[in-house]
């Protein structure tokens, strides 16, 4: 079930990620690189981003380190604190005192914290003025300072160079790290929420990267352990023991019961409404699975026909679903129970690499109480959960996703039209999936609602094509 939304989530992150430094990495490396930068620039609930907090910490370090260096310089003269205070502060003279460098650091600290932490501006002009003013003062200080009478000129030189270097380091970090990453995170999240229905349409204007590298390390996918089961050879049949078959059947029944219980549970919270009347995405927090999403909409075709297509033609999914690269039926376990393997298309120019899933499906026609229907069914359900299957271990070049709980629930609905009664389908999609790959949860939360609304477009288009061909 969860296979179908992976590439949609990737496309939800499309935008200004065409910069060459990221594209030169592998897809899985780009996932971690970009998403970590995205986390650093994100402002959770309007609070300060982590990258800006680091900048404020850097500014504070500048003040404390400069003050410490000044204290070391004056203490080396062998004077008492009273003498130091009198000579450096009370009888201040620019030619012999170094306390003015501390004052410049204090002014720089106050200005930067005021504008970039309290007022939270997103412009480089203030730090350009503070850095420029600092440099101008330090250069003038070099010319007017009485160097021949300096007790320890090495320390004085080091103090001036320290102040000069730190002021330029602050300017570089704000302009090449803080502002670009915050802007990037804001654009991506806005695009996820507000982009149009076309999955091929870029969400943001293509733009070159405004910063060169990442402030964090990237990690490749975890390698397959040497003791992992060997992959299946081409054409090799999967042989299961009776104990394995019984276990799969038990898990299939359990997953269907979980899906039925969750999809029909109360207390759903509205996440987003679709452009078509009746399309809604809701969410609920469950103790067992965490946050679960549910889509509800109407598809203009009989429920039994749509159920048969999902049930019997799983290998044809890539023909009408552009989010699936490969769909393979591994083995039928029993009536309405099978194992399938699917590979989803990557997207987002490397933000999300392709995923593969091994899904245990359970398909049945159910009555209103969730039991197998003896007569006219209340709904048709196709549930799915991730399992391990011999011959299909995780690979080094593919991230293995995990479907916790999910289903399609297809309820028949009869509507009166001028030409008589027509059967439609109340289509509900339950989704709770862990995509792995270090994708930030807030990105997934923002993307899932849009993904589900976009996905129904493929289902409706396929139903319309089948109707035009007279298949129902």
Compressed to H and E, one letter per element, the order equals HHHHHHHHHEEEHHEEEEEEEH
Helical stretch tally: 12
Question: Would you identify the regions where 5 or more consecutive residues have pLDDT less than 50?
Answer: 1-33, 196-228
Shape: elongated
Rg, Å, rounded: 31 Å
Largest sheet: 10 strands, mixed
How would you classify the helix and strand content by structural class?
A: alpha+beta
User: Portion of residues in helices?
Assistant: 40-55%
* Mean residue pLDDT: 81
Polypeptide structure, described:
44% of the residues lie in helices and 20% in strands. The chain is an alpha+beta fold and 472 residues long. Strands 1, 2, 3, 4, 5, 6, 7, 8, 9 and 10 form a ten-stranded mixed β-sheet that branches. The longest helix has 42 residues, at 153-194. It starts with 5 loop residues before the first helix and ends with a helix. Residues 1-33 and 196-228 have low confidence and may be disordered.
Could you list some keywords that capture this structure?
44% helix, alpha+beta, 20% strand, 472 residues, elongated, ten-stranded mixed sheet
């Amino acid at each position: 079930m969860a296979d179908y939304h992976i590439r949609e989530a990737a496309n939800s992150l499309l935008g200004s990620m065409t910069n060459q430094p990221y594209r030169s990495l592998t897809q899985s490396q780009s996932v971690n690189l970009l998403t970590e930068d995205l986390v650093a620039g994100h402002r959770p609930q309007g609070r300060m981003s982590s990258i800006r907090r680091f900048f404020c910490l850097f500014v504070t370090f500048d003040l404390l380190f400069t003050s410490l260096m000044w204290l070391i310089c004056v203490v080396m003269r062998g004077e008492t604190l009273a003498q130091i205070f009198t000579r450096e502060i009370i009888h201040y003279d620019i030619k012999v005192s170094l306390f003015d460098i501390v004052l410049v650091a204090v002014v720089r600290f106050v200005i930067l914290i005021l504008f970039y932490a309290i007022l939270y501006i997103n412009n480089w002009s203030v730090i350009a003025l503070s850095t420029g003013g600092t440099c101008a003062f330090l250069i003038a200080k070099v010319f007017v300072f009485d160097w021949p009478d300096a007790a320890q000129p090495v320390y004085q030189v080091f103090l001036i160079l320290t102040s000069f270097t730190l002021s330029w380091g602050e300017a570089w970090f704000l302009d090449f790290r803080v502002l670009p990453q915050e802007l990037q995170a804001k654009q991506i999240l806005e695009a996820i929420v507000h982009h149009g229905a076309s999955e091929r349409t870029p969400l943001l204007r293509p733009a070159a990267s405004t910063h060169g590298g990442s402030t964090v390390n990237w990690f490749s996918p975890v390698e397959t352990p040497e003791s992992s089961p060997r992959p299946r050879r081409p054409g090799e049949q999967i042989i299961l023991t009776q104990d394995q078959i019984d276990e799969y059947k038990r898990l299939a029944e359990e997953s269907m019961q979980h899906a039925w219980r969750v999809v029909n549970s109360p207390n759903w919270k509205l996440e987003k409404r679709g452009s078509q009347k009746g399309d809604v995405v809701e969410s609920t927090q469950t103790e067992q699975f965490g946050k679960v999403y549910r889509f509800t909409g109407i598809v203009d075709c009989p429920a039994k026909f749509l159920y048969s297509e999902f049930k019997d033609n799983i290998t044809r999914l890539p023909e009408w679903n552009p989010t699936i690269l490969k769909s393979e039926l591994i083995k039928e376990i029993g009536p309405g129970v099978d194992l399938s393997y699917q590979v989803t298309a990557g997207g987002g120019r490397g933000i999300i690499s392709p995923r593969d899933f091994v899904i245990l499906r359970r398909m049945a026609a159910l009555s209103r109480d969730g039991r197998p229907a003896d007569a006219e069914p209340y709904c048709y359900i196709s549930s799915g959960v991730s399992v391990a299957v011999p011959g299909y271990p995780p690979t080094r070049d593919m991230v293995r996703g995990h479907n916790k709980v999910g289903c399609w629930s297809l309820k028949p609905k009869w509507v009166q039209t001028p030409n008589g009664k027509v059967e439609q389908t109340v289509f509900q999609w339950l989704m709770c999936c862990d995509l792995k790959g270090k994708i930030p949860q807030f990105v997934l939360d923002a993307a899932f609602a849009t993904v589900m609304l976009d996905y129904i477009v493929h289902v409706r288009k396929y139903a319309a094509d089948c109707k035009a061909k007279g298949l129902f």
